[in-house]
Write a structure and sequence with these properties.
By secondary structure, the chain is of the alpha+beta class. The chain has one domain. The chain has four helices and four strands, in the order αβαββαβα. The strands form two sheets. Strands 1-4 form a two-stranded parallel ribbon. A two-stranded antiparallel ribbon has the order 2-3. A hairpin with a 3-residue loop joins strand 2 and strand 3. Helix 3 packs parallel to helix 4. The protein starts with 9 loop residues before the first helix and ends with a helix.
Amino acid sequence: MIIGNAGGGKSTLAKRLSKAKNLPLYRLDALQWNSGWIPTPKEEFERRHNELISQDVWIIDGFASWESIEKRCAVRQTHK
């Protein structure tokens, strides 16, 4: 999970780490926003986010919501 301020290098780090470790990379901006900067409905975002974090391995680039961060942290704790 890579989170931080806009312009801080999250996407660059995520891309390089994904390539170096051969891990799937998911960008939350692509989940949160549709064409024309139309937000994804909350229920759809949550469903798609839950599908991502249920996988065994991933790199997720982005903040989204505090609730989604807590879910990512919780699911990683159960996979240790």
